[in-house]
Amino acid sequence: MIVKARIEHQKDFLFMEEIPDTYVPDHRLSEKSITIKDAPVGIKNYQLSTNGLFLVHSEMKFDGPARILTEVEGEAITSQFIFSNKNSSSPNGKQSAKYGRSRHNIRYIPSAKEAYDVKPDVEFVYFLIVLSKDYYLRLVDLYSPLHEQFVQEMEKGISTSFAEHDLFMTPEMRRSIEAIISCRQDGELKRLFTDARITELIMYQLEQFSQHIQGGRESLLDRDIPKLEEAREILERDYIDPPTHKQLSKMILLNEFKLRTGFKKYFGSTIYDFVTRLRMEEAKRLILEEGKNMYEVGVNVGFKHQASFTNAFKKYYGILPSDVRL
Q1: Do both 161 and 289 map to the same domain?
Q2: Domain that holds residue 246
Q3: Cβ within 8 Å of residue 18, ≥6 positions away
Q4: From CA 155, how far away is CA 177, in angstroms rounded?
Q5: What is the CA angle 217-218-220, rounded to 5?
Q6: Which residues of 253-288 are buried (b: 16+ CB within 10 A; e: fewer)?
Q7: Spatial contact of 117 and 62, defined as CB atoms under 8 Å apart
Q8: Would you say 77 and 131 are in contact if contact means Cβ atoms under 8 Å apart?
Q9: HTH araC/xylS-type domain location, by residue (predicted)?
Q10: Backbone phi, then psi, for 140, in 5-degree steps?
């Protein structure tokens, strides 16, 4: 399996790797970092590969129009994530959210060449996992109608994808990606960690694909996506004392109904559940890493009463906050 990509009219490849198809569990990982600065393109790549696996995290900035040429020789399953942000201000005059759009999909490619036109003044963060068929089938061992249909098409050698159109990334997917690229382990531990996180990431994708098909929901409007990203950033910043739905809708210039339904559709979580997760993760960190007492933790994550914090923590984690250290 050979995977390669380059910018049209540029000599240097963004990446070009020949990956053995056979899955070898204890084969070592190979890592490299590449920086390309050649106007109008600026690219910073982190790559990781081993038998049956190629992974790239690429930060790209285009000051002018460009075309990305990609090619896969041999059968491959790709799990692709794209974050993009046009460098402009939001309607309320504030800087736009970090990621104006985010998309993902899983595809089976028996061999293909593709070209992507990129508009100027755009920043991309591109995360791509390429798996051989052998690696994918060993890593993803589950039963679901959606997965079975995907495998059947794959066995026929037919190009296919889990979703007809790319879907929006969830916060869980973002955290899995961040964990993969920030892993500080090495050797066998890093291999085990990478396999586990890739499996986790694919599970999150399959879960969202299944929900999307069952729900039969219409796509979000492109103009609403930066506003929802802005809402997420506000909640991540102010989760201790978050704005009400009405206040948040005014802050991002989106009506309450679109805010509630769009947030759930885009991020796969209600606003309430999203804030609860942020509070509970920070609470656990404060207990384990800073050794704060339960009253301090509750106050620091936005609870006015100790009993309310204790009940919320137990409902979320299944144990009392005082039992976390045991």
Answers
A1: no
A2: 222-323
A3: 1, 2
A4: 28
A5: 120
A6: ebeeebbbebbebbbbbebeebbbebbbebbbebbe
A7: no
A8: yes
A9: 229-326
A10: -105, 95
Matching residue, tokens 């955290």? 175
Could you tell me the two tokens for 138?
Answer: 């060993």
Q: State yes or no: pLDDT of 92 exceeds 80.
A: no
Asked whether residue 137 falls in the same domain as residue 13, the answer is: yes
Please state, in angstroms and rounded to a whole number, the distance separating the CA atoms of residues 320 and 73.
53
Beta bridge partners of 95: 89
Q: Do 298 and 190 share a structural domain?
A: no
Q: Based on DSSP, count helices (H) and strands (E) in the chain, helices before strands.
A: 10, 12
What is the per-residue pLDDT for 99?
44
What SS3 class is residue 227?
Answer: helix
pLDDT digits (tens, 9 = 90+) for 253-270: 999 999 998 888 877 789
Above 70 in pLDDT, residue 86?
no
What contacts 325, CB < 8 A, 6 or more positions away?
287, 288
CA distance 203 to 118: 30
Structure token pair of residue 261: 């339904």
What angle (nearest 5°) sits at the alpha carbon of residue 297, between those of residues 294 and 303? 100
Instruction: Please tell me whether residues 205 and 289 are part of one structural domain.
Output: no
Q: What is the DSSP letter of 304?
A: S
Q: What pTM was computed for the model?
A: 0.72
